[in-house]
Amino acid sequence: xxxxxxxxxxxxxxxxxxxxxxxxxxxxxxxxxxxxxxxxxxxxxxxxxxxxxxxxxxxxxxxxxxxxxxxxxxxxxxxxxxxxxxxxxxxxxxxxxxxxxxxxxxxxxxxxxxxxxxxxxxxxxxxxxxxxxxxxxxxxxxxxxxxxxxxxxxxxxxxxxxxxxxxxxxxxxxxxxxxxxxxxxxxxxxxxxxxxxxxxxxxxxxxxxxxxxxxxxxxxxxxxxxxxxxxxxxxxxxxxxxxxxxxxxxxxxxxxxxxxxxxxxxxxxxxxxxxxxxxxxxxxxxxxxxxxxxxxxxxxxxxxxxxxxxxxxxxxxxxxxxxxxxxxxxxxxxxxxxxxxxxxxxxxxxxxxxxxxxxxxxxxxxxxxxxxxxxxxxxxxxxxxxxxxxxxxxx
Length: 395
Known about the structure:
It is built from 15 helices and 17 strands. It is of the alpha/beta class.
């Protein structure tokens, strides 16, 4: 298969639309910003009410200095760090369950989470949270003439600072736009690092006008999938070069805080939830998106992952249901049956022989960030994310 020819239509589609044209076609969105002095509890409530996982952060209300993006992963890392520093702890441990997947199995932080360490953190200001990774590129509004292909390549898949990036924040200095039209000349900085070190190159005040995410670009491609060509849409992941890779897994009985600790250590935004180390069958997914909610629910992080997801995470509302009545030996010994499946619609997964069209449909239709690749026994063999798809299509 000629890879370049297969992706030609996708790249032409992205190259023929400017960022300005794309934004003009989208409904208006309110950009919610936070400041370094805001209590974390207040910020989490704002995240919950607006269903956010991240927001731009400024040094003060006047927005005279941009500090970066605060992401829920940063909050998770801070909670894990606070729990670990409460007393001597045991590192997160894991075992190989086949197919290159690693299953976490150490229970070490749940008791400390119940003790209120996370609630204490919630009353700290945002400035106490240290960003763990770059989460956004900032560009002048003058760059709206750049194409979506440039946005994807230089903003997401190959950012200028070489760090992983999930969002593109378009901004203008107070009083009007400034700067030229070249992408590299107008990058101010990413969203990660030490907040005290993020400056705006002498710009007195900033206004973030738009935020464009990787998910937005995927939705755009899905909406215009007819222009991608049948050859590309009909190609399987295997044909496109996607391979098996290590997946971080957690058993359903592991405490959420321990699962989050594994995510922080591995620097991944999600883990596969499996029934047990022995069978390794995929039951669900625990991701940062499950952590949108109110700080009063921090105690829920001490719950088993399965219970947390069954109760809807911090959102509330059931996500899982029992596939069969509980009973037998498992019930006798107070152990929940492993036959717990996600609430309808069924858990979205794919295979190496799934087509790109099928994967696009699941990611965009369900508004997911990733799909686990499974074998015939529903054991995780890998994962394909929005970033992986954008990298494939944009080159």
